[in-house]
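Re-run requested by the PI after the first attempt was lost when the workstation crashed. Everything re-entered from the original request form. Ligand of interest: adenosine-5'-triphosphate.
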Amino acid sequence: MSPPPPPTMQSGSPPPTQLSPPASNGQQTVVAANEHMIMPVTKRSPTDYIFGKVIGEGSYSTVYLAKDIHTNREHAIKVCEKHQIIREKKREQVRREKDALNILSNSGSSFFVKLYCTFQDAERLYFVMSYAKNGDMLPYINKVGSFDAACTRFYSGEILRALEHLHDLNIMHRDLKPENILLDHNMHIKVADFGCSKIVEQPDTADSDITSTESSVISDDEPRPRSNSFVGTAQYVSPELLTEKSISCSSDLWALGCIIYQMIAGLPPFRSSDLVAFRSEYMLFKKILSLDYEFPDGFNADAKDLVQKLLVLDPNERLGAKDDKRYTSIRSHHFYQDLDFDKLHEMNPPPIYPYLPGNSESQELRSQYRVPDHLEPGLDYRQLTRLLGLDGQSSSTTPAPAPRPRKRAGVLQMSEEEKQHQLQQQKCNNKWHNLVEGNLIVKQGLVDKRKGLFARRRMLCLTMGPHLYYADPTTMSLKGEIPWSPQLRVEPKNFRIFFVHTPNRTYYLEDPEGFALEWCKAIEEMRVLTYGVSTTTCA
Ligand code: ATP
């Protein structure tokens, strides 16, 4: 979607639409002068902001980074097309989002995006929110594969604090997932996207306890969803939201369990590999309703116990469901031992660094590589020497494999004529030729590609171009490509395991034959050949 065209109405003109979202205080516009002060001001319009880049796309909205021309302050402005809202019957969703954000913005918690004001023109609705500079959490999990225990503890702890606050205000989020956990400039969380939220109406709310499941179970007042529709996102939806039995704050605790699992393992607990969308969702729901999920080898034992106590089919039996006010039973779980929940917002979040969790076959491995602090480690030859055991004390318990004859340098330096000849040979003799888009393969071999605690066997092909293709060796189908750029770096961890760092993701690869260092050298040589500079630390 392109940035909104110049506004068609002047500030203050009454909008000719039924979609006007009145603020809870009856004024159309509420602007916070600073994070803690909300006050009514003159009505805003799109001309009060300079719209910059698109920072997110939702199902019915586009989110822009924008600057307030009066305060110079950056905001995220969610722009919803009215015709799309009407066509897709999202009015209720927009109203919910606004109501929940209004309540939260006045409640003084730092764990939510703040709604500064709303306004509209003839075609669009605008939500002016605080800007969460570091985007959402999912790319972080995907980039590093999984979080270590300290990160998981911290971030799930902040999410728990947010849920305590939310549920205390009688609001259920109902679409909690890593994409809706935003990160501000200090890497603290800001929960966003309240389009599926529900403000619980309680009878005799005077002394009721909204975190108690019994008192907050309500029957939804909206039309019942069709049997194949639900509120929220398939992978994180709780069983009771699927069976339409009841809704309660406990559904958010289920989602918390799914998120903790994903932070540790790298993937959410309930997944389906079926490529056909409706079949995939059906499989997923069957798994959720029968609690069909597994813990991969190496899953942190305390976190496992916590997840098992949150992923409970009966919403009343989930850990925390019977707590008063705060989720004390979750706070006191041994996974959170020594975590001071009340100080989380003042703490420096633990850094999210590339990290390969250990399993029964290999120990956990941390990356020494930092982007952009140390952009130029390349291959550290001292480390290579150590790993090869040439310094007399190999750090790896894996015995060093016998060196293979080196043909690669020749391939990289051959003439165009020779390359064409090799390509002809490859076409006739190499069964992977069809998958590499006509590029000359420099090195190929089976590797285990890990994401968090899950591994998949892949055929990895380094080709001229350069490219790093990976394919499923069973189906002989191309699965993807590690994107090349001058920033691509390899990091050998031992004879079997090496990391390939790219700006958006670290790939964890394991050569079962133990030739990780050969892979690193080949990739590094290709980088130097392609981008022309050697940035290795070897003298
Ligand atoms: P969905 O389809 O999930 O319901 P939506 O239409 O409600 O989405 P949001 O989830 O609110 O839209 O926003 C879409 C994306 O925009 C988010 O995933 C996030 O990346 C980005 N985004 C939203 N709000 C902010 C913000 N305040 N600061 C930074 N980025 C934001």
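Saved to the shared folder this time. The CA atoms of residues 147 and 430 lie 39 Å apart.
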